[in-house]
Amino acid sequence: MTSSADHDAWVPDRLLPGHLARTLPGRRPTPVGPTARAVAAGGAAPVLTLVRPRDAPPDPRGVVVHLHGYNDYYFATHLADAFAAAGWAFLALDARRAGRSLRPGDVPHYQGDLREQASDLTQAVAVARRTWPGRPVVVHGHSTGGLVTALWAHAHRARGGPDAVVLDSPFLSFERSWVRPLQDGVLRPLARRAPLRVVASAPSRYAERLAARWDFDASLKRPEGVPVRAGWLAAVRAGQVRVARGLQIGVPVLVARAARSGADVPDGPDLDGADTVLDVATIAALAPRLGADVRQVVVEGGVHDLALSLDAPRAAYLTAVTAFLATLTG
Predict the structure, then answer these.
(1) What residues does 48 pair with on adjacent strands?
(2) Which residues form the Serine aminopeptidase S33 domain (predicted)?
(3) pLDDT, tens digit (0-9, with 9 covering 90-100), for 241-267
């Protein structure tokens, strides 16, 4: 059951028929260092956008809050459909400077501190709890959103956190990843001095391939890629170092990954059946460090975003996730 106050705040989504959207002001966590503070203050006031299907299960078993990755936004309506079929409501977050929340003057997907996106997730989960009071909340995070979700769940393990976490190919390490990091001794001072310095830029053959199969806005998920900036890279690296030391997420965690990795090259043979963005072996090695109750699922033929895989592996992934959700509510 939803409250009338929350219902009145929603308007028809401009991108997806049958969906409602709600824009909220983004909070400003204190960025690290004077240069980072200047960058955070220099763009448009940050906003976040929540999106949900107009029609949701009338008495849901719980709600799934979805957080996208880098160069991404919510468009995969079949996610909401799969969760609805399992009796769960769905709420997607387009975080600040991404997707529907990108504003003129914004640097796309930039965050100089992962607490920026984490604060957006805090607001999204709060809305989910108000909209569906008394229901368990599960956060579903993909790639960089998976890294943010893991750190956020650890930070909120005592209060205000999720009832469970699902991580779809989380960006836990730079090992064999789509972007080559600078050495920490070079990256940290560069991020302080010139946080918006572009340190990597390349087309995403993975996104280009997805564009041939899925209907999405190529200005919000760009086949030409989104440049990687020093401040963002340093923020992600800091988060990954924290994961490597070990987290203490206090709720069940499902970590899902493709069965193998492959090369992100034009017309590469792995684009339709492997993770061409991250190293799946590293995900497998780091997953146990997230908490005491971590379960892993391996999807044969899956791509980096398992929910955007070909039919059979996508079905296998969604079946595994909804089976995990079923264990939470009996």
Answers:
(1) 24
(2) 59-306
(3) 999 999 999 999 999 999 999 998 888
